[in-house]
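Fold these two proteins, one after the other.
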Amino acid sequence: MIGNQVNRKVLNFEQAIKEGAIKVKDLSLPELIGIIDTSFCCLITWLEGHSLAQTVFTCLYVHNPDLIEEPALKAFALGILKVCDIAREKVNKAAVFEEEDFQAMTYGFKMANNVTDLRVTGMLKDVEDELQRKVKGEQRDPEVELEHQQFLALFNRIKFTRLLLTALITFTKKETSSVGEAQKLVVQAADLLSAIQSSIQHGIQSQNDTTKGDEKELLCSSFPVNAADHPIMMGFEPLVNQRLLPPTFPRYAKIIKREDMVAYFSKLIERVKTVCDVINTTNLHGILDFFCEFSEQSPCVLSRSLLQTTFLIDNKKVFGTHLMQDMIKDALRYFVSPPVLSYKCCLLNNHQAKDYIDSFVTHCSRPFCSLIQIHGHNRARQRDKLGHILEEFATLQDEAEKV
């Protein structure tokens, strides 16, 4: 492989620790802030359709968080893995993604499955509380003001990670009330973004513009990486996973800039808040309009998936409580008001008529669920899929005329 011709030695996490190329304890505040910010950038790049091997797992710390002795970094590494794992689970469950939207392959990496979600959020909260004690107090000497700002910057990032993770965990619950809880959490997370934006400069910066040698080496690798597009800093190795990728990988991964990271999170949170509003829509026409309007914004795959899984829970019930058939019956009453569905009509007590209508509405459920799911796909793919579903609706129309 051409990747073997690079001048510098590509080290994995354990090798980097052994050779002293990476710290696992006593990291400075700027180092912690820089690593966290760059990890956020990698997370977003993954959500935009790139592989974990080229994004999140270029951070060596997430390869084996058990080796990290720094409490804040260990908690964050576990937190980011949990965020990835839950996001991947949600996207897979919703099944509204194409290969250009999302890559779910984990390449055999452990996603912190040996640690419970509750334990990780607890670790993040412990670190958060410790940092909060350090940032309290009004009287400060000018000499320690910078350190105070750095502690505050780290505190905001750890808290944001905890809130984001807790919100995603909340979305995995089947109770409708959990959606309101998730909305409160993302609102709290949104309040931290301006502070994160204003403290980006406190983190160590990647050596994109100065490390000419690294850039040359990266461009010689088996999957070319431009140093201007990939962070080169302590804890990150763009080439560490090159052997996991096929020789002709489909997409070139460009890690987003830190300045764009906050803007992306802000838009993501706004979309998640919109997703939470779907539970206030009770009729089928309103639901269809909601999904259409949401799709017009060209939302990311995660927010589209959260909307799908919030609407139809695991048991295939609307919001986990109503049968789709009942929602269709209500829509029929509202739209065409057929006598057989009128509570005052004697046909409602006729078992044969009731069986006919129940059978028809049951047949309607799958096409309507498919229609809603189609609106969860990206806009480019919807056109093809809508063509197929229209054939099913034509069949339903014929059946309706015979009922």
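Now the second one:
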Amino acid sequence: MGKLLELLKHPSDIFMIVHLLKFRVSPFPLDLSSSSEERKKCYEFLDLTSRSFSAVIKELHPELRDPVMLFYLVLRALDTVEDDMSIDPKEKVQLLREFHEKLKLKDWTYHGCASTERDRVVLEEFHHVLAVYHTIKPEYQDIIMKNTYKMGHGMASYILDNNFNLNGINTIKEYDLYCHYVAGLVGEGLTDLIDMAGFAKFEKRIEKYKLSNSMGLFLQKTNITRDYQKDMKEGRSFYPKEIWSKYTDSLANFVQNPQDRDAGIACVNNMVLNALDHVIDVLTYLSLIREPTSFNFCAIPQMMAIATLAEVYNNGDVLKEVVKIRKGVTCRLILESRTLPGVVRMFRKYLRVINHKSDVRDPNYLKIGIKLGQIEQFCESMYPTKALPAGASRNIKDINRYIEERGDFDAVGMKLYAQETMKLRACFFVAAAIVFLVVYGVLSCNWACKIWIYMNLSL
């Protein structure tokens, strides 16, 4: 009932949901009819373990689809081991550090997870993953193994870090490092896969990893900011002390003491400010992706992140619940994420939402304003909205060159979006016309019956 009321409050969401589910065209639909049983099983695992990534992974270019799917399942297996508190710490550390070695095997499974671990099936039937892993190109195998090694060792190091386990994250530098191990390395691995497939154009290795790290950090920091209440309920938090100590002497006060609500909101806003540091890198990274499905795959999570930041910013509900964006908004973001102009347009929209929500009483009011101004200026340099004075010329930057090198990539995507929208509107028009005619017919029939009855009674 709640979802129905939400749709009635936002009727445009219905349009977006129908567009996404019925009219959006997938260039490479997944066909498993002639696949091996192992491959079918892997995609079954993908559906079981991921609600958000499954659909977009299955729409990837065939060159990348299996490698990315396998990379996801391997990381899901790693996460399951790390999250399972029933596994002995020594065994867990050893397994995490040696997990990359398991990829060299043809038949390996693990049955040591608790029955409460939802994703344990990936480990218990990991031989299916290995079977498909050994069918992909060796270059892709090496990338997956390399990043599995890095992530496994990173996870193990945090398990052994007594200071982290007792005190959490202290400094912003530690916060960035933690997010790097949790999400930045995922970004590196995916970037290597995309680059190896020839679907991106990174000029320098150092630039590639700086940008990909920002992609991961932006997502992870958004999730951490949003999940304050959920994490506190589970007895943990990833807010760095360097930030929250400005507003309270105990992070739990924001939940326990209603009088600390304003301080809690200021803390959340500071976390949003920190996450916004990565936006320019995110947009730069996306400008370098040259294949439509890979672009879509990379852009969708970033679009969700900026919309989520706009939702949680200056929002006291973050302190008492997990704040989420509406389903209709999610559908709109997925639809808009097929082109760089669409992505930039939505980023600008949500940056302005944040700006409008800013409160002059917030301790970071000026810093937020400056940061938003910097990002807005960068977006304007990407796609100018204002005409230059007569005789003036624009200062061409690297980002302009990246956009120019994209060719007709975005024009094709925008044309496809427009065609889908026209078909959808035509269907809505026909449906509305049918409803009108039915209602009109019923009403006309009722009036005819009333007139006939009246005439007969008169006689």
